[in-house]
Amino acid sequence: MSKTELTPAATALTDLILDLFRLNSRVLASGDRLVAPLGLTSARWQILGAITSAGRPQPVAWLARDMEANRQNVQRIVNDLEKEGLIAFEANPHHRRAQLVVLTDKGKQTFDAAMRLQAPWANDLSDGLQVEDIETMRRVMAAMRSKLEGTGDEEHT
Amino acid sequence: MSKTELTPAATALTDLILDLFRLNSRVLASGDRLVAPLGLTSARWQILGAITSAGRPQPVAWLARDMEANRQNVQRIVNDLEKEGLIAFEANPHHRRAQLVVLTDKGKQTFDAAMRLQAPWANDLSDGLQVEDIETMRRVMAAMRSKLEGTGDEEHT
DNA sequence: AGATAATTGACAACATGATGTCAAATTGAT
DNA sequence: ATCAATTTGACATCATGTTGTCAATTATCT
């Protein structure tokens, strides 16, 4: 049997992935439009969210790991956010170079404003969807992610 | 009732979207690694696929519409592919400027090679997934896409 | 203590995607 | 036929993401 044969599930998955790309780009575009009036983008919003979720101040490299994102990229955006006064750096007692990232008052207010915009957006987008189907989708995505795991996130080696 | 209240479905959807971002980035990274030996990237691969799916030669702008992608961006990558000999331009009898994009022999061979790599990759990634669950995920994504539709794709106006 | 690893931020180069502008070419309305 | 609107490719700019390198710092091992 040739290796170019696709199983039924693989055929369905191939189509699903093309849909995934398109949906990802639409959600990003919609999110960008949503928070643009606040001077945010999806990427900046996500970083503010990571800082908030962390609970306590963390260095940039730790935030990047939490987000499963690129260290250098998070650093660049964090630096931009610092220039605009949304975040600030604090001295790290355990590491002289790795400063801690904290939200400024302006950063907190901006993030809260984004959350207030997000609520009606999410309510509308989820209207008519079954919670059960959403959970099924998350299970499928989790299975795919675990299969794709560990094959490309290491920085050195 | 405050507009910052999230319905149960909206709460599930918010988590789902964060998973969506991560899965999208992993699939892209995995796809890039898969076809890198062929000199392809996910973006180039997708464009070769659009040319193939079209059935007959089309101008860049039509391909971009088929892909629901950016016209200028597709143009840049198509130009790169032309420099590397994977695609070629043909005169368009109906439009002097809008040349038709066709795969060269090298382009066809490269795309076929990518498909041969993709088959075992998709079979492995879909192994253990229920076709029914994959279909459910596609339905949810389709519902989301239709809600996000028409709010940001127009080029002018 | 001293050597080696790992972590971290800074910097640079490049790929990708979004957006805007412009001129050439085509289409459509009158 | 003529003029306006649309389509299309070319070019430019910026935001984001990836990758590689380097030096400073910290952690680990002996």
Alpha-carbon Rg of chain A, integer: 19 Å
**Overall average pLDDT of chain A:** 90
- The number of helices of chain A is 6
- Assembly type of the chains comes to homodimer
Quantity of strands of chain A, as a count: 2
Largest sheet, spatial ordering of strands of chain A = 1-2
Q: What percent of residues of chain A adopt helix (DSSP H or I)?
A: 55-70%
Q: Pick out the low-confidence regions of chain A.
A: none
Task: Report the structural category of chain A.
Answer: mainly alpha
Assess the beta-strand content of chain A as a share of residues. 5-15%
Distance between the termini of chain A: 36 Å
Principal-axis shape of chain A equals globular
Work out the largest interface and the residue count of each chain.
Answer: A-B, 63 and 63 residues
The biggest sheet of chain A amounts to:
2 strands, antiparallel
H/E element order of chain A = HHHHEEHH
In short:
2 copies of one chain form a homodimer. Chain A is mainly alpha-helical.
Please specify the SSE layout and strand pairing.
The structure is a homodimer of 157-residue chains.
Chain A: H1 8-35, H2 42-54, H3 60-67, H4 71-83, E1 87-90, E2 100-103, H5 105-126, H6 131-148
Antiparallel strand pairs in A: 1-2
The structure holds a DNA duplex (30 and 30 nucleotides).
